[in-house]
Amino acid sequence: MNTGGPEVRISNISPEDDIIEFSISGVDLSIANSIRRTMIAEVPTMAIDLVEFENNTSVLTDEFIAHRLGMIPLLSTEVSSIDYTRDCNCNQYCTKCSVQLHLSVSAKDANKIVTSADLISSHDSIVPASNNVTIVKLRKGQEVKLRCVAKKGVAKEHAKWSPVAGVAFEYDPHNKLRHTNYWYEKDIKKEWPESKYAKEELEPGLTDAYDCKAKPETFYLTSEGTGAMEPRDVVVTALSTLLAKLGLASVLLKNIASATEGNEDNHNSGW
Amino acid sequence: MTQFNTLENVARSINPSNTETHFPKLASLSQPHIQSFNNIFDSKSNLLNESLSLIKKNKYLVNSDGTSIHCKVNLLFSFLITCAVWFEKIFIGKPIIEGVKSAKVVPLYPSECRERGISYKSKLSAKFCWKVNDGPIQVEQKALGYVPILVKSTKCNLEGKSPSELIKHREDPEEFGGYFIVNGIERLIRLLIVPRRNHVIGIIRSSFANRGPTFTPFGTQIRCVRKDESSQTNALNYCRDGSIFFRFSYRKQEFLIPVVLILRALTNLSTDIDIFESLTAGSNLKNSYLTDRIELLLRNSSGVLGLPTTRKSALEYLGSKFHVLLDSKQDLTQEEVGEELLKEVVLVHLNNNRDKFELLMSLYALSAGECAEDNPDSPQHQEILLGGHLYSNYMKEKFNDILDSFKTQIKIDQRKTPAIVNFQDKKYILKTLGKINTDIGRKMEYFLATGNLVSNTGLDLQQTSGYTVVAEKLNFYRYLSHFRSVHRGSFFAELKTTTVRKLLPESWGFLCPVHTPDGSPCGLLNHLSHNCKIITTPLDCSKLAGLISSFPGVSSILTKPKFDENDVDAILSIQLDGKIVGWCNDTTGIKIAQQLRSWKVENGKGVPLDLEIGLVLPTNAGQYPGLFLFSSLSRMMRPVKYLLTSSTDSVGTFEQVYMNIACMKEDIVPGITTHQDFAPTDILSVVANLTPFSDFNQSPRNMYQCQMGKQSMGTPAINLPHRTDNKLYRLQTGQTPVVRPKLHDTYGMDGYPNGMNAVIAVISYTGYDMEDASIINKGSHDRGYGYGTIYKSEFINLAEKRIKGEPITKFFGLISSGSGLSKEKLEKYKEHLDTDGLPHIGVKMSNGDPLYAIVDDVTGKVEIKKYKSMEESYVEEIRLIGNDQGNEPLQKIHIKFRIRRPPVVGDKFSSRHGQKGVISQKWPIIDMPFCESGIVPDIIINPHAFPSRMTIGMIIESLAGKAGALHGVAQDSTPFTFNEDNPASEHFGEQLKAAGYNYHGNEPMYSGITGKEFKADIYIGVVYYQRLRHMVSDKYQVRTTGPVHNLTQQPIKGRKRAGGIRFGEMERDSLLAHGVSFCLQDRLMNCSDYSQAHCCIKCGTILSLVTQKKNSTLTEKNLISCLICGEGKDVDVIAIPFVFRYLCTELTAMNVKLKLEF
Q1: Do B771 and B819 belong together in one domain?
Q2: Which segments cross the bilayer (chain B) (predicted)?
């Protein structure tokens, strides 16, 4: 049993596939789940948020193209250098809190596919993560000309800011804790596949006693990114975001505690 | 094995075929509509010219220099001048743009009609011919207006165009036509069910007995169809005293004639004994039932009673009675008029009288005999009234009307100004022709635009309206269903009995048992099974009669075999399309039927495949026996496998009842079964076939899906930029289903996606999924799940407001000089409008924004028209519409608005299994339950949706969809492919297992909020979801304050006018029962028409109070006094509902005084 605090084991990092596979042990379930949630929803990235159309004669409507543009992952390694627009002193948006991208394609001679490669960013590193995301197909003679404003944000607000496509999360591959019941018709072994992480933990013997007080220990997470961030960075940023939030919470809690200590009588009588 | 065929689909859309359609099955859906329309003009059937030849003989005019018209016709015959008029050689061209000053003819295409909001029609003309006495035929070419043309018919400019050409003409590549375009709207003539033609059915109906004394409930009926597809129904009524009445209706009037009169008039049999023998030939004379009755029949009408006894006198008698009704020419003898009556109304499908006589005998035998009644609601005795044939008949009547009104016009002239009537004068004839309304085109257009049949004859049909419907392009399922729907007739909709709505086994393979709406049109509005065809090309049966009589054992028409007591076989009549072609006994009948069938399947001896061979063998009180052959048009037929040769046979509704057709292989009984269905799904309609695994579902769920599939937001058309429909729903993120039946590809449904694949978890998670509500993943929503768009259209025509003939003074435009607009206002308008007065493309419109501007040429003032809708939209397209020649100033425009409709809480979604529900929450992605692989469902539905509804098909679809998504394959979901020996769950379970998933489709899931694994594993998979068009944005109604009714001061009703929802009597009752009187007063008084009124406490009235202006400057208050009491000291202010004041005044008007007591 692990007693020396949390332990993280990274089994696989593959930046090409935007995948990181790791396990955490020695933490509570709530912490592990918080990491998952933070990775999905609270890691700030850049995404196109405003689109100004100058011309759009394509078959897709303005709002549809704008939506598609928003979904394109932008490289957000330098997202920390950008402010949230809401925290910025500027009127609408400025270079401190936004990055502008331009798109101007016209199919003069033949049909053309407009891709993310056609997005010209005003920033050196905040550019589309991939160059082959199709935005719209243009027929000969059609044109799209627009200006995009990318902003910093989190996926809590809109899924386009999520750095990950999905986060796999699992614990207790042998169901030792009996949190769940595997329903089966005839043979549990035949009907249920073995977990990927089954080998990581010992399979309980038939005679082993059920420990009703046992708690989940090791959590296996895999995150598949969108390309906006290095898979490692997603986890690291998530952890620091979580830490910052917990820090804030603990400070606030301390404040409340010190406030209530002084006014204990008052507090009691009040209720 | 089904496949996505993505590359083929892409290749097809980039390089559409320039030879033939990609999906012949899809193109064949409108075939009955198009082919029946083509029949009007085709050289083979040429219905319209056939019609004209039928009406021409009747229209003779008589003129005797203006004087002798009232004299006896016979006496003056030699002095009369007769003039015959008729129409000949109808000509209809292809639609062209008229009035173009160029040598080249400019064809008019349907897309132009839709975009301009005009009708797709072409010029109709015919030769008006007349002949005076025996002089030469004179001819005048007469233009008869413009008649609407069916899209993709032979008269249409799109006929036979390939997908690539269709695209050039701004149509869908798979456009299948079959509709008319009237004022820019696509309308089609509904398929209607009518009684099977030329076949006698026996009816027992208690209402027959109420027709008069001695009438019994027994009768027979036959709907006879002439060569030009017009029909006349004849009926016989049997009476207790042995007499029989021949019943028919003519020009919407009903007539009854003793049948003996008709019998005598039809043939030359001179004596009663001859008629008796002729009628009883071939029957058992010892059976006195028949002989007694015939004897009675003849005795009752013998010469003693003064009734005609010879053929001549019978004809004369009939002629004398029907002379006026038939409006026959005046120089005919009464005998000739009698002949005419027989020709016009008695068994009109037969040509010579002798044939008619034979058939009357069988009618008679049926009426008196002991066979079972036939069910007129069974498809066995039904056929389809096709749009083209109705169109042709209606046009025929309009031609007839022209000739009638021509005659009437001449009669008016003869009466008023006899001097000018001169048939020899061509000018007079043409002048008279010019006076009457000959615009057939207008009338045809009215018929198609409204569906109202304005007719003198009624065309032998039971309804006068509802013949046409709009082919709504709500989505593609709905659109194509219009062309496959068959209506029973609006007469039956009012019927209290439900027998007509029943699903009968006879309709197997012809009408879909699943695809009928629930509610009032249930069972009356059916849809053709997807392989059911309607015969629309005339069959060549010229050799058939000879072929039959050459069989050994068949006696000719004239020599009905004598009844032989020792012979057990009964004598059958052999009828071809209602005409007796021979007699045989039943063993010969079986042989003939078998032989004909093998010939027809092999197409040997000129027996056509679509011939129907109905052998009804004699049974004890069964259907009236005979060998009935049908070769006529409009019959429903379906392909089945002929087991003997494994080739395709075509089976009709009549014969199917007497055939042994197996459905599945295991149903085949050796020695008995002759045919087998090609597939069990043949019984289903196109839309019903597209429900995956429908054989797993409880049957009503499949019916619901047929309804919901037709109301889902999908892809209505591909040529959206060229459509001007009032409202179009479009799903922006449509997908091809992972799980789909084979027919999905056969019908090219990938071109018209109708929903999207969604990951569905069946779990009761938050409580927001109770009562069929479902939770949608906010992440999916953010990523565009179910995003829809509505296109709304508006035509603006400045010419409509102008009085015809006046000069054009109003134009679109926004000018600054002299417009009376301030500079600021102009600037503000310019945000939305351009100088041409029209909005910018892509501009956002909210309520009150300027929509367009008009300049008045005379005053120079600018008028701004505002956008009235409450909903925000974007201007998608503006069309400038001119006239045909393009030489008129712009007066008509078309604006298309685009309304965004992302899914919101309250919008309706459904799976393809009749499982509908509304979105109750957009749930944050991190709080959603998730799988170990990190998959988060798009939609959560409650497990309680399943037990009572038993939609196992949806559970299987989820399983199949999951396996398909994991392996990247399309899954075949054709119904009836799995069974107990080969269960679907096993098939897809193995696939899931191979992908490393649980065999049953379950997965352990974790709470998104706590991260804890759920106690139960969750059923999760991929299901194709449809977004239905019912959206809260179209339905919500809310009001704080708003417009009130100006008479009662109460809030007005109606969502559109920002009105309130009625707090009605039952609502009031419930508040009373709760005892919440303050709430009640709030609803009924304070929030409604609260008002204050002065009241005289003394006399208790609120109406007698007058205000007197006080002259004194000391007080500002006016004095209010009561007129009755004459003083103002008892006046007080009270609160009353305003409507109470109205009541008081109304009562006062009736001299009732209403007094309040305090």
Answers
A1: no
A2: none
In this predicted structure, the answer to whether residue B38 has a pLDDT above a threshold of 50 is: yes
Where residue B58 falls among pLDDT bands split at 50, 70, 90? low
Contacts with B622 (C-beta within 8 Å, 6 or more apart), sequence order: B371, B372, B616
Handedness of CA B443, B449, B454, B459 (dihedral sign): positive
The domains of chain A are located at 7-42+163-259, 46-155
Q: B251-305 pLDDT, tens per residue?
A: 888 899 888 888 888 877 667 777 777 777 666 666 677 777 778 777 777 655 5
ipTM value for the complex: 0.92
Q: Are residues B379 and B390 in the same domain?
A: no
- What angle separates helix B334-345 from helix B259-266, to the nearest 10 degrees? 110
Residue B188, CA distances (Å) to A234, B136, B180, B683, B915 in order = 60, 43, 6, 25, 31
A189 touches chain B (CB under 8 A): no
**What CATH number should be reported for the domain holding residue B557?**
3.90.1070.20
B1075 in contact with chain A, both atoms CB, cutoff 8 A: no
Supply the DSSP string of B569-610, one letter for each residue: SPEEEEEETTEEEEEEEHHHHHHHHHHHHHHHHHT-TT--TT
Rounded Cα–Cα distance for residues B374 and B5 (Å):
50
CATH code, B1126: 3.90.1800.10
Give CA separation, B683 vs A153, A201, B485, B951, in Å.
Answer: 56, 57, 14, 21
A115-128 pLDDT tens trace: 999 999 999 999 99
Cβ atoms of B339 and B353 within 8 Å: the answer is no
What is the total count of domains within chain B? Answer: 6
Calpha distance B264→B312 (Å, rounded)? 9
Is B860 in contact with B830 (CB distance < 8 Å)?
A: no
- A20 Cβ partners below 8 Å, 6+ apart? A10, A12, A13, A14, A222, A223, A225, A231, A232, A234, A235
Cα–Cα distance between B32 and B537 in angstroms, integer? 10
Of the partner residues A160, A171, A193, the one whose CB lies closest to the CB of residue B997: A193
Considering the domain architecture, whether residues B570 and B648 belong to the same structural domain is answered as yes
- Whether residue B125 sits in one domain with residue B16: yes
CATH topology of domain A7-42+163-259: Gyrase A; domain 2 (3.30.1360)
Q: Is the distance from CB of A216 to CB of A26 less than 8 angstroms? A: no
Whether A37 and B1008 lie within 8 Å, measured CB to CB: yes
B926 touches chain A (CB under 8 A): yes
Supply the CATH classification number for the domain A46-155: 2.170.120.12
Does residue B811 form part of some domain?
Answer: yes
List all residues of chain A from 57 to 86 with a beta carbon under 8 Å from chain B.
61-64, 67, 71
- B842: containing domain: 807-901
Cα(B298)–Cα(B1087) distance, integer angstroms = 82
